[in-house]
User: What shape does this take?
Amino acid sequence: MNQNPTSQTSYEPGNYVTINIGPSHPSMHGTLRIAAVTDGETIVKADPEIGYLHRGVEKLGENLTYHQFIPITDRLNYCSAIPNNVSYEMAVEKLMGIEVPEKAQLIRVIMMELARIADHQVCIGILGVDLGAFTPFFYLIIQREEIYEIFEWFNGARLTNTFGRIGGVDADLPDDFEQRWEELKPGVRKANDETEKLLTHNRIWMDRTIGISAFSAEDALNWGFTGPCLRACGVKRDLRIDEPCCMYDKFKFEVPVGKNGDVFDRYIVRMIEMEESLKIIDQAYKLYKEMPPDAPLMARVPKVIKPPAGEVYSALESPNGELGFFVKSDGSANPYRIRIRPPCYMMFQALPELAEGEMVADLIACISSLNIIAGELDR
Amino acid sequence: MDDWLIAIIKVVCIWVWVLLIAVVMTWVERRGAALIQDRPGPNRAGPWGLFQPLADGIKLFTKEEIIPTKAQKLLYIMGPLLFSVPAFSAYAVVPFGDKIILGGKEIILQVSDVNIGFLFILAIGSMAVYGVILGGWGSNNKYSILGGLRSTAQMVSYEVPLGLALLAIVFVYGTFSLRDISLAQQGTFLGFLPNWGIFKQPLGFILFIVAAYAEANRVPFDLPEAESEIVSGYHTEYGSMRLGLYLFGEYVNLVTISGVIVALYFGSWHMPYIDLGAYLGPISWGIVSFCIFFLKVSFFLWMFVWVRWTLPRFRYDQVMGLGWRGLIPLGLFNIFITALFIQLTV
Assistant: This one.
């Protein structure tokens, strides 16, 4: 069904129309802008422009202490703040050579996987909305609310969690976590199931997603894709397995891999990952329960964090892909330089190649399925 | 003189009635969406939020009217009118019940029983395209013109399968008049099936309903106003009651389309297997037939809502492909089969 009309009809470039999609447009996730040169409905050239949400996050880091920077990392990928916090904390811990207690690591895993589920729910829901299917969005967002309830009740924040501290976590899981978790699990599964019934084998959905903005594994690697979008292309790379941190090597879970790297594969990979995340949380919580109740939550960390001079890069598998922090210290209480490697910056660069020859409606589907979050794109 | 008076009363009554259904439909749409999506929906204005359409109407009427500086004023103002006036006129030939006898005078429950019947609906229905394309063009906005073009191509393309499905109906009933077709759907055939259009034209019904959804710009064919792609399509630049006329015209279109579906394919005001007209007095039968007709109409109205909140949206080229490569050959095939059948049996 995916025919490319450009091959048959070619107009003079003077007849092209430039449509300015964004920065203020219903389906631009945050403030993105794409100047699309179109030939009728077909995109000849899509020129992404970034910087509308630039807040100077990296520069801010140079003027704050190490702990003060944690709330700033919430504002990167605001759909799932916890992996951002943890990734930054891990970078500083690596620089200081701190070994985080196992119990704190388990709490981090549980919270990060919950955030991953929430992130994927938003991504799939919005993908549905952008393709005209409104209802799955609500089924998913209701469950995401339930996850946010757990976050809220853990430390009071829903969106900007400021989770954990350098060297561990600040608080233990609350007492009735098990009950809340057991209540949440069937709900998430049911919402996923309903979404699957409404979308996956729907003829219109398949026509709209299969083969759209397909990307080969080689191209994806060359552009620096990571996360679900890379796995959709057929590359089995997941930092949770390849470079395990936080005891991820102790859990058994599958890494779903797609074949064509199109919108449909990205959607399916995310759907399966949610199920796998549920399994990981189950295993992590089982290990957590075996820990003695008075096991430490924090490593021994000085009151004022002054890492020795040096530099470090540390990354983990955030819901969107490899989220890396480069931290350079000159031995003082403020970082000398912080550089963030967000996953969707690399993917947004490939947009001209992904969208060329597709139609306007496919461009929107493509952006949604890449899960471009302006917060971590522009920083 | 009496005939004139009756005609005027019928025009006013049915106009108000269609208007009322369209208003209630905006409420049903939201509450239905909320029901499907596990949320309460608008429930603050009045009982069950029933006054919500009223509040919306007040809002739309009191908003400031803005005409974009570079818009073509005449076309911009004409657009909504050209869209909503045909929407209201089309219902004139659709029946809304059998007949009622008042003071020894037989009154047909239909504004006008013209012998060209649904040719009138097709003609008037295609006028609405002008409202969309001129509104889109006059707004001087790229999203609007894209929406207008999409809508024009779609409505013109789907007029063909719609016409083909209706042609097969003419073969079966031998008339264009919706009232005559309605009357012919009484009783049963083959001994057990109600004499309804859907049983005589099953393929034609499917063609008709798909094409009707596309004509009404409803999901899954709502790409002229796909908010995720082209903001609001042809009415991006519209505000206040001009926008209201577009939105309202769509709901009126839905009422007309549902009325036509019921009149042609679902036995109009007849109940299956039982002829209530034989048992009831002339006045009560008039009222009952009206109720039966609108019960059926409300089912199809609900189906529009139901489908809208279930399916994703097609892409532009897929809509065109479905129309030209799928529905039109099927429509021709349907005509061929119908003609063959009639030729062999009569």
The longest helix of chain B spans residues 2-36. DSSP finds twelve helices and four strands in chain B. Residues 70-345 of chain B form one domain.
